[in-house]
Write a structure and sequence with these properties.
44% of the residues lie in helices and 14% in strands. The chain has 582 residues and is α/β, with parallel strands linked by helices. The strands form 4 sheets. Strands 10, 11, 12, 13, 14, 15, 16 and 17 form an 8-stranded mixed beta sheet that branches. It has a 5-stranded mixed beta sheet with strand order 2-4-7-6-5, sandwiched between helices. The longest helix has 20 residues, at 391-410. The chain is globular. The structure holds 2'-deoxyguanosine-5'-triphosphate (DGT), calcium ion (2 copies) and zinc ion (ZN). The site of one calcium ion (CA) has 5 residues, from helix 11.
Length: 582
């Protein structure tokens, strides 16, 4: 187990102990230990091997023993026994907003509630309102929270779906009976939020592939298993469907199950207009619904289907019936940006504010990944909860970045960290003086504490865009996927101001944000606004967000030329100086 996995187990032990009503010092010790592990900058394995766990804050002998066991064997009987000693539905109750371990324990002890279903029934029977310390109001709140959770439980963030799907896809690809395979559905279309995962395989031996699929690690429950398809529930709660088809049918099935439904409907209509029939089994001659192979128009790949329908190949990301047919018909589909075009990220955090890693570690990682530059844009003073920098610390950081860069220059490497800030957009203006901003390579301005008044938010953002020192606006809408709605805001007005002032807009590539939304980028592009795909990285494993963000940019029809951080360092430097010079 790596440190994050061990930390998760420790945190869960802490929670389980709380649910049992254990003494708070003991439970807190586990939560604290989990946090210490999460913050480690050297490999946990190494610390264990060198017998140095005792040096970590709060790690007594019992804890050292448990962590060592988890790292070396991957399991801990104490954890398993603890889990087994509590009703399995209890931890899920903690996910209901407003319910902490103490309340959950009381609900269990006093009303026998051990599942969300029972909790809901008890609310509806007015049993919670009667409970000491709960009342009508909190009963209504619990019901609301249950409904909220239900609405979102069937929807998952792209990154969670990818993390489940990619190992399974790899595994399928390695099976000797699998000829071709792919994800399909919303995942292949790179939607920001996914209902279920779809896999498609072509094979001569469907039963073998189906059996292999339902046996994959990560499969919690088999929901349905037939000769050519299966549905499973994965650990983590995402459903996955697999269909197995003959190889001749594969391109048709892939196009069909990639969707979107709206896109498919237009494809079918185009087929009918040409005296053909299109369905998941093929493209057939004639006007009757059929599966007859003798009538099938041979297509080796999806590309061939589009061609028979008078269209250029439409990349999956664009298959939303948002104008792709008109463009594919007249051969003006954009050549979409690729994630390998990206040379760095211009909005990221370090351990100087709320990031995990040091400047040195960040630089080393970016350099190793072959990137050309990486901007350090820690929070400004007003974001005190994120340990934002004041002017003095920012000046110190500029120097520290200079030292890191000097060491790369000395080795003859062209890699550079860029100095910067994610400066807060406050009611009165920006959190730093213009003179200080002018000394930074990169200035990202973000609204973190919005007003409830749309006009006020719009005004603040436009004012930030009008500042010649501000290169770009960060996570413009402020939405958190499946968690928080966008701020109230006149986005078109802000886009217009950005176009007029030469201010760029970030595509925040954090899978919790993907902000600005892909549906708005064509409008931004038409106005002449450039995009910057930023990781908003807080730890090294967030560097991978570049790939996710590039997929969202593709969904927004953006090309390499639309995205600033495809520029090499010299061209980027010129671009960064343009607004200031004007
Ligand atoms: P999701 O899972 O809700 O995120 O969205 P999708 O697009 O993955 O939808 P899903 O899993 O229900 O079905 C996969 C694809 O299969 C869908 O994108 C299009 C195709 N499909 C499914 N049902 C229909 C249908 O009734 N009509 C048409 N034309 N296509 C369908
Ligand atoms: Ca799906
Ligand atoms: Ca599905
Ligand atoms: Zn931010």
């Amino acid at each position: 187990m790596d440190k994050d996995e061990v930390a998760a187990v420790l945190a869960e032990i802490g929670t389980l102990l709380e649910l049992k009503g254990e003494n708070p010092f003991k439970t807190r010790a586990y939560h604290n230990a989990a946090r210490v592990l999460e913050g480690l900058t050297e490999p946990l394995e190494k610390i264990v091997a060198e017998n140095r766990l005792g040096e970590l804050k709060g790690f007594g002998e019992a804890l050292q023993e448990k962590v060592t066991r988890l790292v070396t064997t991957g399991t801990l009987p104490y954890h398993d026994e603890l889990k087994a000693s509590l009703p399995p539905g209890l931890p899920a109750l903690l996910e209901i907003q407003g319910l902490g371990p103490k309340k959950v324990k009381r609900l269990h002890d006093e009303l026998g509630i051990d599942s969300v279903e029972k909790l809901e029934a008890a609310c509806k029977a007015d049993a919670i309102a009667a409970l000491d310390g709960f009342g009508e109001k909190s009963q209504a709140k619990i019901l609301e929270a249950i409904a909220f959770r239900r609405q979102f439980a069937s929807r998952h963030r792209l990154i969670d779906a990818l993390q489940c799907a990619e190992p399974i896809l790899e595994s399928l690809r390695g099976h000797p009976d699998v000829l071709r395979c792919s994800t399909a559905g919303s995942l292949r279309r790179w939607k920001e939020v996914i209902g279920d995962i779809d896999f498609l395989v072509s094979s001569k031996h469907p039963a073998a592939v189906i059996g292999f699929f339902v046996d994959q690690p990560g499969v919690r429950t088999v929901l349905a298993q037939g000769d050519t398809k299966a549905s499973v529930l994965l650990e983590g709660g995402i459903q996955a469907d697999l269909r197995v088809v003959a190889d001749e049918e594969y391109p048709f099935a892939l196009a069909y199950f990639t969707g979107s439904k709206e896109h498919n409907i237009v494809m079918r209509q185009r087929a009918i207009a040409r005296g053909l029939r299109l369905n998941e089994y093929g493209l057939f001659r004639g006007s009757e619904e059929t599966r007859d192979p003798a009538l099938r128009v041979a297509c080796r790949e999806e590309r061939d289907i589009f061609e028979h329908l008078g269209l250029r190949y439409v990349p999956p990301e664009l298959r939303e019936d948002h104008g792709e047919f008109a463009a594919a018909e007249s051969d003006v589909l954009p050549r979409l940006v690729e994630w390998t075009d990206l040379r760095g990220s211009l909005h990221n955090h370090s351990n100087w504010s709320d990031g995990r890693d040091s400047l040195e570690a960040i630089a080393a990682h970016a350099h190793e990944l072959g990137l050309d530059y990486w901007a350090i844009t820690d929070h400004s003073r007003a974001s005190f909860q994120a340990n934002g920098l004041d002017a003095r610390r920012l000046e110190e950081q500029i120097e520290a970045v200079g030292k890191v860069n000097a060491s790369y220059a000395a080795e003859g490497s062209g890699f550079r960290l860029l100095t910067g800030t994610e400066v807060d957009i406050l009611k009165e203006g920006l959190d730093f003086e213009d003179a200080l901003l002018a000394r930074l390579d990169v200035v990202v301005a973000s609204l973190h504490v919005p007003s409830s008044d749309a006009a006020e938010n719009t005004r603040r953002l436009i004012r930030a865009a009008e500042n010649p020192q501000v290169h770009m606006l960060g996570h413009l809408s402020g939405r958190l996927l499946l968690e928080r709605e966008a701020y109230r805001l006149d986005i078109p007005a802000v886009l217009k101001a950005c176009a007029e002032t030469g201010t760029w807009i970030e595509l925040n590539a954090s899978p919790y944000r993907f902000d600005l939304d892909w549906r708005l980028w064509r409008q931004a592009k038409e106005l002449g606004v450039k995009c910057v795909i930023n990781c908003d990285a807080h730890r090294l494993d967030h560097f991978g967000f570049l790939r996710l963000g590039a997929g969202i940019a593709r969904k927004g029809w953006l090309t390499r030329g639309d995205v600033i951080n495809t520029l090499a360092l010299p061209e980027l430097t010129t671009a960064l100086s343009r607004k200031r010079a004007a």
